[in-house]
Amino acid sequence: MNTLPKIPDEEKWASLSFMEQMANIGSEVGRTAKWVAKEKPSMAEGAFIRALDLIDLTIKVGRKGQSNRYDMLRELCTCRGVFCDAYLKKETKELNGLDKYFGHFARAVRR
What we know:
This protein is mainly α.
């Protein structure tokens, strides 16, 4: 049985920067892309659900106090829609593109 990692609580998640949140989301998006490509549906589904949980948590906690918070949330909502569509259609090229997009956040956080 595949057990999903625990979703962080809102306070802990909200304490992360938007870049850190996006990098963490990207990890799950990358896992989703990998498992879809390897035709491992149960593993892909677990990573997909985890990514959606993290996206939804990011949307929920918002970015209070940041002047561009609406732009960031709009971007994240757009990514969520594209991600869902690509996963449901098993479009590996689109999923790999999203993995690359989120990878930029991971690289920025490491700097």
